[in-house]
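Chapter summary example: a protein plus FE2/S2 (inorganic) cluster.
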Amino acid sequence: MSSINKRAQQIMAEIISNKKVGAYHHITLSVGEIAQLIRPGNFVAIAVGGADSRMVLRRAFAIYKASMDPLDGGIVELVVAPHGSGSTWLCNAPLHSKIDMILPLGKAFGIPVEPVNALLVGGGYGSAPLFGLAEALKAKQCNVDMVLGASTASKIYAPQEGKRSTNSMIFTTDDGSLGIEGMVSSVIPELIEKNKIEIIYSCGPMAMLEAVTKISVEFGLQHQCAVEESMACGIGVCMTCVLPVRGEDGVARMLRTCIDGPVMEGSDILWNTGRTVPSEVWGA
Amino acid sequence: MSSINKRAQQIMAEIISNKKVGAYHHITLSVGEIAQLIRPGNFVAIAVGGADSRMVLRRAFAIYKASMDPLDGGIVELVVAPHGSGSTWLCNAPLHSKIDMILPLGKAFGIPVEPVNALLVGGGYGSAPLFGLAEALKAKQCNVDMVLGASTASKIYAPQEGKRSTNSMIFTTDDGSLGIEGMVSSVIPELIEKNKIEIIYSCGPMAMLEAVTKISVEFGLQHQCAVEESMACGIGVCMTCVLPVRGEDGVARMLRTCIDGPVMEGSDILWNTGRTVPSEVWGA
Amino acid sequence: MSLPFNYSTSLGTTTLPNPILTASGCAGSGKELAQFFPLTELGAIVTKSIMLKPRSGRATPRMAETPSGMLNAIGLQGPGLDLFIENDLPWLADQGARTIVSIAGETVEDYAVLARRIRTQPGVVGIEVNISCPNVENRGLVFACHPDTARAAMEAVRRNVGGDMPIIAKLSPDVTDIVQIARTVVDAGADGVALINTLLGMVIDTRTMRPRLAQKTGGLSGPAIRPVAVRAVYQVREALPNLPIVGMGGITSGQDALEFVLAGAQAISIGTSTFGDPQAATRIKSELETLLIERGFSSFSDAVGYAHRAENV
Amino acid sequence: MSLPFNYSTSLGTTTLPNPILTASGCAGSGKELAQFFPLTELGAIVTKSIMLKPRSGRATPRMAETPSGMLNAIGLQGPGLDLFIENDLPWLADQGARTIVSIAGETVEDYAVLARRIRTQPGVVGIEVNISCPNVENRGLVFACHPDTARAAMEAVRRNVGGDMPIIAKLSPDVTDIVQIARTVVDAGADGVALINTLLGMVIDTRTMRPRLAQKTGGLSGPAIRPVAVRAVYQVREALPNLPIVGMGGITSGQDALEFVLAGAQAISIGTSTFGDPQAATRIKSELETLLIERGFSSFSDAVGYAHRAENV
Ligand SMILES: Cc1cc2nc3c(=O)[nH]c(=O)nc-3n(C[C@H](O)[C@H](O)[C@H](O)COP(=O)(O)OP(=O)(O)OC[C@H]3O[C@@H](n4cnc5c(N)ncnc54)[C@H](O)[C@@H]3O)c2cc1C
Ligand SMILES: Cc1cc2nc3c(=O)[nH]c(=O)nc-3n(C[C@H](O)[C@H](O)[C@H](O)COP(=O)(O)OP(=O)(O)OC[C@H]3O[C@@H](n4cnc5c(N)ncnc54)[C@H](O)[C@@H]3O)c2cc1C
Ligand SMILES: Cc1cc2nc3c(=O)[nH]c(=O)nc-3n(C[C@H](O)[C@H](O)[C@H](O)COP(=O)(O)O)c2cc1C
Ligand SMILES: Cc1cc2nc3c(=O)[nH]c(=O)nc-3n(C[C@H](O)[C@H](O)[C@H](O)COP(=O)(O)O)c2cc1C
Ligand code: FES
Ligand code: FES
C-alpha cells in the first residue's frame, strides 16, 4: 500500500543546544549529512530514558528545522512540550548528551509546482513544522499566511526568524492572552476569502485538524494536515498508529500514520471515529 | 527476634563530591544531623535510576565515613564499585544531584570496652567501613592492624588519611600488583601470633569472610564480620537477605542480614550453604 | 462540596477508615515499617502469610530484580502460628493497628485450624486466605489454580469463621479463567477476593548458566505485572459486581492505585513498592485521596468500579 | 578452538543459518525493516499472523506503554490470504529471506485452508500457528487456552501440511498449565512450540476514567514479561526435552536471548524491542554469538537447554 521511506537512518545525535522557550524546549541536535534529506513535515523517532529506562517505545517529534550549519554541520531543531515522562526526559536532557534517533520519517508536505496562496494553520507545538514549510513555499513564490493558535500565549511557538517567510501571521488564544481570543477555526473562513487561499496546510491537535478539514471542505480547498496519532515505533512495523482513511479507490482503510502520514489529505480521513472502527472500513 | 533499628530515616541527600579512585567512586553526600547517629558498620539503602527507572529495588552500600563537617554539616562518604546497572548509575550521578537514601541501617560493629589488639581484614571495597571502625577502636586505645586484599592494586581502597588510625597496614593482591601476592587469609595467622590479636573484624566477599572465620575458630578468636547478601529492601520487610545463623540457643535460623546484620559473629554463620537450606535450620 | 471527603471503605462486615493496606509478605511483622509511619495511618496491615508450623523458607538466592519488577522465592518463612499469636498479633493490637491476617496451609485441614485460632485474636479485622502462593513445595498444590482445591480450602475456613469476620480469598493470576475461580470461592463462602498474587517466573543467571533462584522459579511482582492485575480486577468486577475486591500488583503511586479503584477494587494493597520506598503506602494514601477529590468524588466508594459505567456517562 | 562457531539451528526439518527470528506482528511485512538491515541476516522472518479475509483490526487507541512493556490490541489487521500470497510472500522470496508464515483462523476450518494454501508458497520454510492471539473478537475463542480447541486447530494444520514443512504452535501464557497445552499440540502433530504470546492486560486512563484501549484489554509484551516467558520455556523443555521451542518475550539484548537459549529455546524471536530499536534483531544476533563463544560453546545447539544440566556439571 504505502511506499516506504527508504532513507531513514538510526543515529546517535548530540544535543548542541536546549533552550526553554515559553512552554516548550527548543532543542538543536547535530545529525550530520542526513539533514539534507529532510523535507518539511518529516519527523524523528527518539529513544527516551536511557539504558535503564522502563520506557520501551520511541517518541515522535516533528522536525522544526533542518539545515547545514557552517559550524555544526547538519543540524535538526525540535520544539518539544514536556508532556509525559518521555518528552520531559528529552526536555531535561543535558547539553552534549547523545540521543538515539531515527530520521527522516514519514511523508512530507506536498509542495505545489506553481505559486499558490497558501494558508498554514498551527496549534500549539504544531506550528513547528510549518516554518520550514513556509520557507519551501516562499522559495516557490507562494503567498504564505499563517494562523497559530493555542490555549495561552506561552504555548504559541513563533520565533522571530520564523515570521520572515510568511506574508501575514495571526495568533489566537483561548484565554485571549495573545492575539484574538478564540480558536484558529474562527478566523480561517475570513482569511480564506480575503487572501484568496488555494491550499491549506495544518498541524496541531486532532480536534483542530478536524475543524480545519470541515472548513476546507466547505470552501472546496485541498487540505494537507499532519496528524498526530499514538505511535509505538514510527517506522511502520507495529500498526498502532492507524487512522481510517479513504483511498483513491473510495475504500476506507486503517492506514499507518507513520508511513502513510503524518501528512494526509484532511478530507480523506474519517474523523472523530475514535474507539470504534467505522463500518465502511475495509481490509488492511 | 531482632531488635529493629529505630533511628533510620529516609532522606534526599545531595551529592557534594563524586571522585573516581582506582576502580571505585568515592562519593560524599550531605545528610544533615543524622550523620551523628551513624556507627561503623552501618549501611545506607539507596533508590537508583531516577523516576522512570526499571530498577525497583534499593541498593545497599556500607558507610565509609560519617562526620559533621564545619562547612557542609553532616556528611556521609561511600566507596562504590560500578558493578551492575544500579551501582553504575550511582557512580555516574552528577554533582548536586539528590539521592533518595535510608540511613543508618543495620547492626554496627561492637566496640570492646577495654583496649584490645584488633585485626581488621578487608576485601575490595569491603575496606570502606573498616576505617571508621579503626578510628573508633583507636579512641578506645586499641592496637589496630589492618590487612586489605583485592584481585589487583586498583581494587584496594586505602586512602592516606585512613591509615592514620592503624598501627600497621598490609596489602595483598591476587596478581601481586600491590603488596604481597596471594589472598588475605594467607597472611593472617602469622599476624595473629606476632601481634597477639584478640579480635578480628572483617568485611568483604563472602568467600573471604568464610576463610577468615576458619582462622578465627582455629585461634579461638571473636570474629565480627560484615556480610553482604543480596538485599531488596534493606529495612527488614522483604526476607530476601537471609543467612542461616546459629543463635545463642544453639538453634540455626534464617536471619535477615539487613537487621540482624550485616555485622555478625563469623562462627555463628553456617557458611557455604548457598542454594540449600541446611537441615538443622529451624523455623524462622 | 462542603462535606469532607469520605475515604472509608468496607470489606464485608468490616469498615476501614481508608482503603490502603499493606500486601502480605511485604511489610514484615509491622514493626519494621512502624519506624517510618504509625501503622494506624493505613486501613489495615495485612500480615505475612502465617502457617501452622515455624518455617525457615527457601534457600538463597531468594530474589532477582527484573525489568520493573522482581522475582521472589521466600517460601513463607515465618514463626508459625503459636509464636505469631504470642508475639506479633498482640504487638499490632497494642499499636492500635487493624490487622488482616493472611493464612497459608499445606492441607485443607491446616486452613481450618489456622482460621479457627486466628478468628478470636485481638485487633484482627479480617482473614486473607492465601491459596495462591507459588513458592510452596509442590507447585501442584497451589489451591487457587484449580476450582476444586480452591473451594475446599475456602469451605474449611468458612466453616470455622462466623459472618462477623470477613474472609478474603487471595487468587493467583496463573490460571486460564480467574473469573471461574472467583465464582468458586464465593460459592464456597468467601466475602471477597484479593487480586493478584505473583506470576510464576524465572531468571537465568547467564554467568552460572543456571536458574538464578535456588528454588529455580519465583513469584513476579512489581509494576511489570500491573496491567495483568488491573485486567484481573476489571474482569472479576464485571462478572461479580458486588464482590469486594482487594486490588494489588505493582502499585507505586496514587495514579496506579486509582486504576485499580476505577477497575473495581474496594481496597488497595501495597507490596513491592514498599521495598523501594518504605513510605510508599502512606504516600499513595494521600496521593489517591487528592486524585479522587480532584475528580469530584465526594466519597471513595463512588469511585469503585467507575470505569465500568455506561459509554455515555 | 580452531573451528568457527556453528550458529545454525533447526526447527523440525528446517535448518536455519542462525536462531534469530522476528516475532510475528512486530516486523510489518518485512519491507519496513529491510531499510535497516538485509532480511537475509536473520534466521527467518516470521510474518504478521495472516487470516483468510482482509481485516481492518481494532479501533484506536490500540496501544499503551506500560512499565518495561506495552499493551497492544491491533486485532490482526492484515490484507487477507490472497493479497498476502500475491504481494508479501513473493517480495520476501525475492529478498532471499527465509519466511515462517504465521497463520490465524477464526475457525478450525480456517486453519486448514490457510495451511493448505501457504505450504506451497516460495520462500516459506515453516508455519507458525497462532492459536493464542488475545485480540480476537471472543476471548473464549483463544484456541491455545483449552486443550480441546488447541488440538483441533493443530490437527487441521497437520492434516494439510506434510512432514517436510515444520508447523509450530504458538501458545498463550494465560493458562493454568502450559505444559499440558504443549503436550496436547505435540500429540496433534506440532513439530515445535513458540513461547510465549502476550499476556492479557489492561490499562485504565485516569483522566477519562475508562480503559485506555478501545478494545479495553490488550496483549502485554516487552521486558516486563520476560521472567514469565523464560519460565514457560524452561517448564516445557523440562517436560518435553526434544521438542523444538521458539522462545520470545521481552528479549532486548544478547544477554536476554541467552537466558532463553539456556532455558531451552532452539530459536529466538524479537518482538517489542524492534519498536525501540529497528536493528534489535541483528544486534542481538551478534551479541548472543559473542556471549556463546565467550562461554566456550563451539556450536549454538550445545547451549540449548544447558540450564537443565545436572547440579554437578
Ligand atoms: C508525527 C508526530 C509528531 C509530533 N511532533 C511533536 C512535536 O514537534 N513536539 C512535541 O512536543 N510533541 C510532538 N508529538 C507528540 C509527542 O510524540 C508526544 O508528546 C510524546 O510521544 C509523549 O510522550 P511522553 O512520554 O511524554 O508521554 P506519555 O503519555 O508518557 O507517552 C506514553 C506513550 O504514548 C505515546 N504517546 C502519547 N502521546 C502521544 C502523542 N501525542 N503522539 C504520539 N504518541 C503519543 C508515546 O509515544 C508513548 O508510547 C508528535 C507526535 C507525532 C505522532
Ligand atoms: C550491607 C551491604 C553493604 C555493601 N556495601 C557496598 C559498598 O560499600 N560498596 C559497593 O560498591 N558495594 C557495596 N555493596 C554491594 C552493592 O549493594 C551491590 O554492588 C549493588 O547492590 C549491586 O547493584 P547493581 O544494580 O549495580 O547490580 P545488579 O546485579 O544489577 O543488581 C541486581 C539486584 O541484585 C542486588 N544485588 C546484586 N549484587 C548485590 C550485592 N553484592 N549485595 C547486595 N545486593 C546485591 C541488587 O540490590 C539488585 O536488587 C554492599 C552490599 C550490602 C548488602
Ligand atoms: C517478597 C515477597 C513476599 C511475599 N509474600 C507473600 C505472602 O507471604 N503471602 C501472600 O499472600 N503474598 C505474598 N506476596 C505477594 C504480594 O502480597 C502481592 O500479592 C504481589 O507481590 C503483587 O503485589 P506487588 O506487585 O505490589 O508486590 C509476596 C510478595 C513479595 C514480593
Ligand atoms: C504490536 C504487536 C503485534 C503482535 N501481533 C502478533 C501477531 O499478529 N501474531 C502473533 O502470533 N503474535 C503477535 N504478537 C506477539 C509477539 O509475536 C510476541 O509473541 C510477544 O509480543 C512477546 O514477545 P516480545 O515481548 O518480544 O514482543 C504481537 C505483539 C505486538 C507487540
Ligand atoms: S508507529 Fe508503528 S506502525 Fe506506525
Ligand atoms: S533486605 Fe529486605 S529483609 Fe533484608
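Key point: Residues 226 and 262 of chain B are 5 Å apart (CA to CA).
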